[in-house]
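Here is one chain, start to finish.
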Amino acid sequence: MGFDSGATLKATIRMGILYGAVTQAPVNIGCFTIDILLASAKGEPVQDTDTGCAFYTIDNIDAEEIAQNLYD
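Its structure:
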């Protein structure tokens, strides 16, 4: 098991050395950050926000919903 992505981690999953890993959702993190900053600047209440994550293995590493979260 691993966490995040990167060339080494993805390669070990593709080779079957690691079963899988959890990756964050960097696009969501950026979007939610801007939304929360704007709300805060307007004096609106803000709260902790789940930005999402996904578990990936060799079976779904190339799926669009996973691949968009992986980077080197």
